Every structure is written in structure tokens, then in C-alpha cells.
Amino acid sequence: QVQLVESGGGSVQVGGSLRLSCQVSGTIFGWTMNWYRQVSGKERELVASINTNDLTNYADAVKGRFTAARDNVKGTGYLQMNNMKAEDTATYYCNLVTSGGRGYWGPGTLVTVAS
Prior knowledge:
single chain, 11 strands
């Protein structure tokens, strides 16, 4: 049974930083971690990905500000968010996709950026 537990959400001022963590329970090899965010009433959007080779991709809205990382020993993915903007306010979800294409979601963590 694979479970994802997110942490690190909260409130921050514009220009501030937060780091989200996504702890993976269960033994999985070769996973990609995606980070999504969703604002109430809008579709969930992909903001960052990191694959098994540590290759990363970012949405244009967060390029240069957000950094995805992973620690395979700890089984944890991270999303470092810097120079945050009010429009970064959302619920953030980690999504793990195995090499076989199976996907798992974390419960989400709320990030609020106050001006």
C-alpha cells in the first residue's frame, strides 16, 4: 500500500519562501513526482515534475522560483518555493507515478501567500 503524506504548507508573505515535502510510504522503484496546485473553482494545474533521472520541468508561472527535488533514500519529494506571489495561493498536491504508470495522490496542503 503506497501512501503520500505532505507537509510544509502554511502562510507566507509575498516574496517569502516555503518548502513542501511529500513522504512516500511503501517501497517503490523508479517514480516520478509531480506537484499540482488547485484554486477553488479552477482546474488542478501541474506546476513541477521530477523524474527518476532528476530531470525537472516547470510551468511557466513558476520557472525560476520553484525547484523540485527528491531524496530517494528518504523516499521524499520536495518543492522549494521562493519569491512567492499572491497568485501562488492554492492547495498543493504531490502526485507519484510509478514506472508502470500507476498514480498516487497526497491529500493536499494549503499554501497562502499574503500581500
